[in-house]
Amino acid sequence: MTSAKDIDNLRRSGTFDAEWYLKTYPDVQALGMDPVYHYLWLGARLGRRMSGNGNTKAELPTDLSISRAKAMLAAAEDPINHLAIKHRTLFEEGFAKPSLEPEVSVIIAAYNKVDFTLRCLDSIRRHQESHFEVILVDDQSSDQTSNLCPNIPNLVYMRNEKNLGFLLSSNRGVTCARGKYVLFLNNDTEVTPGWLRTLVRLLDSDSRIGAAGSKLIYPNGHLQEAGAIYFRDASSANFGRDDPNPEKPEYCYVREVDKCSGACLLPESVTSVRC
User: Is residue 275 one of the residues assigned to a domain?
Assistant: First the structure.
């Protein structure tokens, strides 16, 4: 990991021209990154120069693994190269090392849309709670999923030999799950503080609960659903759908529902799911 000392040493050395670097490599400015940090973390590995005088030699941090450096290079050569930089903390820190018997196995099935997947994984990293493992099942994605995601520390990465679809990919993730519970999470979701601990506590509180789900909010802040309702004619509706105020009291208490969305679903039993 690039340290503050590395950045300060290069900045003081007088060999790095920050203004020239930003002008020569406009992608750095577009990302809003400190040019010295960018050079030490990735630019030098891409053969970028420190200034217009041709000097490119600098003392680089040595604690970045070769595998992660390769992931950065692969990303830099791809149209979506900024993803590895935007989520650099995810690639540097990853997830906490799970115990041999984690409380929850979080299973994410993904087919392409690596930008969504990285945002999802990064949100989990930011809100790590309980003892859990994260299992990503790559359903033969054709984008950079297979180049980037295996380099995230302590992520369990599986790639299907052929495209199996969402259901079978999720089932494959269950086969290697070690947790007391398994939680299915869509790769286009982003979790918030308290997301996992709340679900687990709910299941543990009452043996009659078969599954627990989350309130879902659209990116624009509107409510997607707070559970679903089935009617006598077998039609259904998402409770509160598209309400611009998802914090209304009727959406913010635990209650029995007809259906929880599979976008974030915690079944009561791992055994029953595996069957």
Answer: no
Among the listed residues 123, 162, 163, 118, the one whose alpha carbon sits nearest the alpha carbon of residue 136: 118
Q: How many CA atoms lie within 13 A of 172 on its CB side?
A: 21
Which residue in 95, 94, 155, 143 sits closest to 115, CA to CA? Answer: 143
Over residues 78-90, the pLDDT tens digits come to 444 567 777 888 8
The vertex-246 CA angle with 244 and 251, nearest 5°, equals: 135
Query: Is 72 inside any structural domain?
Result: yes
Per-residue model confidence as pLDDT tens digits over 69-79: 455 555 444 44
30: domain range?
4-91
C-alpha 2/C-alpha 17 separation (Å) is 19
| Residue 256: closest CA among 218, 202, 204 | 202
Assigned domain for 102 exists: no
The H-or-E segment that residue 19 falls in is helix 18-24
> Is 63 part of a structural domain of the chain?
yes
Distances from the Cα of 53 to the Cα of 16, 23, 39, 42, angstroms: 10, 15, 16, 20
CA distances for 14 relative to 2, 17, 58, angstroms: 19, 8, 11
Q: pLDDT by residue (tens digit) across 231-274?
A: 999 999 999 999 999 999 999 999 999 999 999 999 987 654 44
- Rg of the Cα trace of the chain? 22
Asked if 250 and 273 touch (Cβ cutoff 8 Å), the reply is no
Pairing of strands 216-217, 223-225: antiparallel
Long-range Cβ pairs for the range 206-210 (8 Å, 24+): 209/268, 210/267, 210/268
198 with 227: CB under 8 angstroms?
Answer: no
User: How many distinct structural domains can be found in the chain?
Assistant: 1
